[in-house]
Amino acid sequence: MYLTQKEERMLNGKEGYAVRKSMEILVALGNIFGAKKLIRVGSVQVAGVSYHNLGDAGLEFLNELARDGKVRVLTTLNPAGMDLEDWRKLGIDEEFAKKQNLVIDSFKKMGIIISCTCTPYLIGNLPRYGEHIAWSESSAVTFANSVIGAMTNREGGPSALAAAFVGKTPFYGLHLEENRVPDTQVNVKTKLKKLSDWGALGYSIGKKVENKIPYITGIRDANLGELKTFCASLATYGSKPLFYIKGITPGSEKHRPPREKITIHDKDIKEAYENINDDVEVIDFVCIGCPHSSIEEISEIAELLKNRTISPTTEFWVATSRTMKQLADKRSYTETIEKAGGKFACDTCMAVAPLKGRFRSVATTSAKGCYYSRHNNMKTKLGSLEECVEAAVRGKWS
Ligand code: F3S
Question: What is the pTM (predicted TM-score) of this model?
């Protein structure tokens, strides 16, 4: 891979330890994937923030980099393993909180914004169309590539950090126009009636197209909540982190529908629900906000919980960014949700918090949330916001 003189200096350690390590990572990646050079990135989103996933080895790696590492571009963080301000309320133990705070201290030292969200585009890390970026979390990467039209590979935690310290990433994969051409046309011949149907659609398309880029036809409209849910599900269940929806997402007008074609019928959506849902009635955990809730979603939750009380046997979380929660505070949504017995889980989420063994079953609007909850040994129910709120109030799925 071609390196400029400045990049050579960085690789030789002339700009410190963190930059040298970062260049080693970027050059190794570039060589593996045949990149000809490094390109500048406009922003970085770093995943691998939860101590639950990092462990002591990860913490040590971050501490080493934080000795002299400073980010050169706007860099935000994915969710951590706990609410950074109110972790006790979520049942997090002291020892975990101590370690998680050490992780966050390292990121702070590096100059990273402690945003702790998988929807950075809702709180100020919003790239422009065609901008090269280096993001890591799969739903955010898919949203950035497909809904915004920015260009990013799905970075791992270390390669995203490396891009932040150098301000560049290897020029390969989805940074190249020729690798962004759709492979399969997906004709959607079913009506999507509720938010969770978009998760079921993502499941179905992801499984059918596997590692390809779908060009989706047959969808007339989609709002922000539906698109972010779809992004999370599609990337979890199989497709590349890029899709086009004809007439809705940018770039769809540039491409012709591919010849290879599949169709999604009612039965495919039904099958997706059958595969995602378990046979369970009692629900002891309900989590909304995967990806992190927008202010619009929080307002809908507040409206549904007005004058209602969540079952004492059920824990109800609204996962979101702290910035979004502050907005919810101002608009009294927080008061309504907390009065009903709900909790805000800021900075964290159902996949990265240490939840194994705490709950037996979860109801959620997110197909991705179901996937990760099964890894935490929970039985899962995917449903609309109304169905999930109802499950929280009744303590069971009906
Ligand atoms: Fe975000 Fe966590 Fe879901 S990172 S997409 S809320 S699994």
Answer: 0.97
Q: What is the DSSP track for 149-164? A: --B--B--HHHHHHHH
Residue nearest to atom 4 of ligand 1 (CA): 118
Residues 51 and 160 reside in one and the same domain? yes
Cβ-based neighbours of 17, under 8 Å, separated by 6 or more: 64, 65, 67, 68, 69
| Average model confidence (pLDDT) across the chain | 97
Instruction: With a cut of 80, say whether residue 249 has pLDDT above it.
Output: yes
Is-contact 149 229, C-beta < 8 A? no
Determine which residue's CA is closest to atom 7 belonging to ligand 1: 351
Smallest CA separation from ligand 1 atom 2, residue:
349
Claim to verify: residue 79 and residue 141 sit in the same structural domain: yes
Edge-to-edge strand list for the sheet holding 379-382: 343-346, 315-320, 285-288, 361-364, 379-382
Q: pLDDT of 54-87, one tens digit each?
A: 999 999 999 999 999 999 999 999 999 999 999 9
In total, how many domains does the chain have? 3
Question: From the CA of 227, how far away is ligand 1's center (Å)?
Answer: 14
| CA pair distance 95, 298, nearest whole angstrom | 31
Kindly state whether residues 195 and 284 are assigned to the same domain: no
Question: What is the whole-number distance in angstroms between the Cα of residue 350 and the centre of ligand 1?
Answer: 7
Cα(4) to centroid(ligand 1), Å: 37
Query: Is 120 in the same domain as 48?
Result: yes
Flag whether pLDDT at 398 surpasses 90.
no
Q: Hey, what are 13's tokens?
A: 């350690």
Per-residue pLDDT, 239: 76
Asked if 63 and 161 sit in the same domain, the reply is yes
The verdict on 219 and 310 lying in the same domain is no
Domain of residue 250, residue span: 181-275
Choosing from 144, 160, 177, the residue where a domain stops is 177
Average pLDDT over residues 167-185: 98
Which residue type occupies 242?
L
Instruction: Give me ligand 1 centre to Cα 23, in Å.
Output: 29
